[in-house]
Amino acid sequence: MPEISDNQMASERVKVAIIEDLRDLREGLAMLIGGTPGFECVGRFRSVEEAIAKIGFHLPEIVLTDIGLPGLDGIEGIRILRGKFPEISFIALTVYDDDERIFDALCAGACGYLLKNTQPARLLEAVREVAAGGAPMSPEVARRVIELFKNFVPPKQSACHLTPQEKELLKLLVDGHSYKTAAYHLGLSYHTVSFHFRNVYEKLQVHSKSEAVAKALKERLV
Known about the structure:
The protein is α/β, with parallel strands linked by helices.
């Protein structure tokens, strides 16, 4: 049997970076990843801003990122870093399990969404899944996503009557934009965009951004 060189073993490791503002958790994750065969921790950052500045020096395959971060939040971080490094995959690792943040993270480009109470072995398994092209979620999160789609009773397509600008705004939501970034993208004021979105929600018969995104995806409105 041929021997496996150190270089071959290194190339087979899944390279992971961490964005987490809590020092103990950040260092604990780094120890878990770095101390497990088949994984390598190539970066740990306290903020999205630090990750943007430094992550390119040792590019990871997977980034584990908190959402509730000081400065730029993790969802905005996913969107920015995906734009700069499209080859990186992202897993949200957070305490938040509400519909709004789940959909915002997935629309921004997260490949997985895990809660921080995820067991270490499951966390490592999820990283492997993403590296293989999967999309792992904590069971609680997966149930919420399924329920949100399942419970929709969409109106007839003709009842929507979205204007071209409203469709463009809805597409921006689906792409992970916030009201603020959508306004910047279109060169409109925040208040103007907010007004248009209220009309979009009324026409779609939804009450939140996450419901609007789910409706748009399910009904292929954009």
